[in-house]
Automatic annotation (TrEMBL):
This protein's name: PLP-dependent aminotransferase family protein
Disordered as annotated region, ranges: 79-109
Sequence intervals crossing the membrane: none
Organism the protein comes from: Streptomyces anulatus (Streptomyces chrysomallus)
Top-level taxonomic group: Bacteria
Record lineage: Bacteria, Bacillati, Actinomycetota, Actinomycetes, Kitasatosporales
UniProt xrefs under InterPro entries: Aminotransferase_I/II_large, HTH_trans_reg/aminotransferase, PyrdxlP-dep_Trfase, PyrdxlP-dep_Trfase_major, Tscrpt_reg_HTH_GntR, WH-like_DNA-bd_sf, WH_DNA-bd_sf
Segments forming domain HTH gntR-type: 19-87
Keywords, comma-separated and alphabetical: Aminotransferase, DNA-binding, Pyridoxal phosphate, Transcription, Transcription regulation, Transferase
Alphabetized GO MF terms: DNA binding; DNA-binding transcription factor activity; pyridoxal phosphate binding; transaminase activity
Family the entry assigns: In the C-terminal section; belongs to the class-I pyridoxal-phosphate-dependent aminotransferase family.
Keyword Transferase recorded: yes
Length: 466
């Protein structure tokens, strides 16, 4: 992991993980000298100032300075402070003959949201499904295929989504895509061709989704958000929009479900204006304290596009997603996909179809639901014991939690965590540019670490909290 610190006029790239804070700081300073970002004679800040800037103990910086002085990288003279040593230029070597410096593999912990536990991918069950699916596959399955997606997968998805998420679907309404981003890109093209200019988005969400819509020529006005979810009942919030992008089951990243009144208000808006609701059901299968909130699409299948993927339930590397579309939209989306854009390979689609049909998908989801619930409970318990002043929210579902911080603490906590090899995201990372700054918080993805790394990641988190 690498982080950048703007310090004494130079960006100091720190890679402390796996080698200790002092060693990480030393290597960052060496690299800054090698690259010329710290020029000979540059005066470094005092150990006290740099320690405060980086959020580490003063002795850590003092020891690093002393060792770099001994190695000849720095000089230290009373009254002159610590400076970059004036060294002769290194002898030039033939780049082809120079041995490449080994790249140290990434270490540390990652608690950023957005990924499941990849170590839990059901390899054996997936391989079994792949063997069975490929053995039974017709020859034409290995051709260019249908841009709608394999009918085998669309058929089992229609049954599964109706049973598990309350989605009204039949195979003809489903188009397979290579994940949510691909589906949103296709929908952006279709909406723009229909004359839509604005697609409202929630005031907190992923910037990459806003960028995909913007790239399609659409504006993304900001929809206000509070403790009951997006404020879909306010006419002014959706005025001029031809569509709205929502995460109704578990708002990302705040974690609140859309209140029933606001779910109804969103559908009423779509019916009265002819608008569309784009429902991102990114982790709707993972609810812990009661039955999952049903998909919004069930309220009006002709006004809601339901988008789902296997990225959270299985793995994002599969690149498998789906759209359940209003009938009037199917032909336009398939046309936008184009005769040369199939993206998701037929063998993987057939494997997922068999994986679902055999019951292996349900078993895997149940297993992961128990694992993630246990992690959520361990997170809450650890915070109660070691950081009792931190309030936790958004934990009824999904793979992430929101940790409230004292005003002004978000940036410093993230920096301190990065220096110790812990990757975190703050709530501000997901705020729409037009949304007012609200509160300081962390968005903790407790799904990402492997089972072996989880305890260490949780301990590292507790150490950096105020």
């Amino acid at each position: 992991m690498t982080d950048s610190w703007a310090t004494f006029g130079a960006d100091l790239h720190l890679e402390p993980v796996g080698q200790g804070l002092r060693s990480g700081l030393m290597e960052a300073l060496r690299e800054a000298v090698r690259s010329g970002r710290l020029t000979p004679g540059t005066r470094l800040p005092s150990s006290r100032v740099l320690a405060a800037d980086l959020g580490v103990a003063r002795n850590t910086v003092a020891d690093a300075y002393a060792e770099l002085v001994a190695e000849g990288w720095l000089t230290a003279r009373q009254g002159s402070g610590t400076r970059v040593a004036r060294r002769s230029a290194p002898r030039r070597t033939d780049p082809a003959a120079a041995p490449s410096r080994p790249v140290r593999p990434g270490a540390g912990y990652n608690l950023k949201p957005g990924s499941p536990d990849l170590s839990a991918f059901p390899r054996t069950a997936w391989l079994k499904a792949a063997r069975k699916a490929l053995t039974a596959a017709p020859d034409e399955a290995f051709g260019y295929g249908d841009p709608h997606g394999r009918v085998e997968l669309r058929t089992v998805l229609a049954e599964y989504l109706a049973r598990a998420r309350g989605v009204y679907a039949d195979p003809e309404r489903i188009v397979i895509c290579s994940g949510f981003a691909h589906g949103l890109t296709l929908l952006g093209r279709v909406l723009r061709r229909r004359g839509v200019r604005d697609v409202a988005v929630e005031s907190y969400g992923l910037d990459v989704h806003r960028d995909l819509l913007t790239d399609a020529g659409l504006r993304t006005p900001c929809l206000p958000l509070d403790e009951r979810g997006s404020r879909t009942g306010e006419p002014a919030a959706l005025r001029g929009a031809g569509a709205v992008l929502l995460t109704p089951a578990h708002q990302f990243p705040t974690g609140v479900p859309l209140h029933p009144d606001r779910r109804a208000a969103a559908v009423d808006w779509a019916r009265s204006t002819g608008g569309l609701i784009l429902e991102d059901d990114y982790d709707g299968e993972f609810r812990y304290d009661r039955q999952p909130v049903g998909a919004l699409q069930g309220l009006d299948p002709e006004r809601v596009v339901h988008l789902g993927t296997a990225s959270k339930s299985l793995a994002p590397g599969l690149r498998l997603g789906w759209m359940v579309l209003p009938r009037s939209l199917v032909g336009e989306v398939v046309a936008a996909k184009g005769v040369s854009d199939w993206t998701s390979g037929s063998p993987d689609q057939l494997t997922l179809a068999e994986f679902i049909a055999s019951g292996a998908y349900d078993r895997h989801v149940r297993s992961m639901r128990l694992r993630y619930r246990r992690r959520r409970d361990q997170l809450v318990a650890a915070l109660a014991e070691r950081a009792p002043g931190i309030e936790v929210s958004g934990i009824a579902a999904g793979l992430h939690a929101v940790l409230e911080l004292p005003p002004g603490a978000e940036r410093s906590v993230i920096q301190a965590a990065a220096f110790q090899g812990l990757a975190l995201d703050g709530l501000a990372r997901y705020r729409h540019p037009d949304a007012p700054a609200a509160r300081d918080a962390l968005v903790i993805g407790y799904g990402s670490p492997s089972e072996s790394a989880w305890a260490g990641a949780l301990d590292a988190l507790c150490r950096v909290l105020p």
